[in-house]
User: Fold Helix-turn-helix transcriptional regulator from Streptomyces apricus.
Amino acid sequence: MAGHRTEAHPHGADRLCDAGDRVYSRAVRRGRVSREDAETVPCLVELALLHPDPDDMGWLVPTSPQEVMTRLLREMHEHVVATQSRMGEAVSAFEWYAALGGDARSPAEGMALRVLDGLPRIRAAMDEATEACTSEVLAVQPGGIRREDELSEGLHRALALRRRGVRMRDLYTHVARHGQGLLNYMELMEDAAEARTLDEVTERLIVFDRTVAFIPASPDRTVALELRHPALVDYLVTVFERLWRLAIPLTAPLPDTGIEGITHRERSIAALLAEGHQDAVVAERLGISVRTCRAHIARLSETLGAASRTQLGVRIAQAGLDGPPRSPELQPLSAPGPESPTGR
Assistant:
């Protein structure tokens, strides 16, 4: 941490030397320390951790630990802000140098990767890709029920694409089926868009004309990557196409689990629990809240007659819910109940 340093005591206020630690601690406990005792640790005065007592110049009083902590946090914040600023400058410089080898018609064209830092830059790049798109858009939309503001944010792009005859294919989680906003959106897009759903999908992905792709580069999705390298884009398209073949059309019902009392979502939860995932991870992967996930687990436990999480794991395996659906001849006709040999 920043602070005045000397050869004898090359440190800042965030990490005192042993001698400085002892003297400063004593000063805080007693309220002051004599100048003579502090002579061996000039670092404390240099770092403004000790200062003269205005009532007696032969003594030094300590700066309160709370004030020191505030100062350190302020310095840390200033350091983070400065680092972020330098990162932004470095990204801009990278883009400038990379663009020198590209086509003069478009600075972004010919660049394999571009970092988009901040929502305004992301939206601008998406708008640019939308305007240039002529045939197809592939999108993966993770999470649960899509909020109206999320759907509205990209609606102008979708409508512009529809007017130009561009085809759109979207992948969602099964949970998204329960949102009226998505149904309204698909109705508005008519035949220009097709949606399918899966138990879980990858992180967000948007591909325009199989030439440029966008993926998030930060957990809060305020940083994104624009990818134009053909190998990278082809790889992402392949991932999308394989998920698309496994997905179920939005207009088609979800398949029955074949086990009485067990819903499709509960089967998905059971499979993830069998893999050893915690409730929060299961909820995130399926696009539901932790509270909803636990309610399903409670119903699953009741249906399978499990009195504990350990017993639930056993019941899940016995019912064949710990993996993909089994063939009909191997599938149990019902979940084990209390009266069955495997029940309580």
Summary: Residues 107-249 form a domain with the Endonuclease; Chain A fold (CATH 3.30.870.10). The mean pLDDT is 78. The longest strand covers residues 56-62.
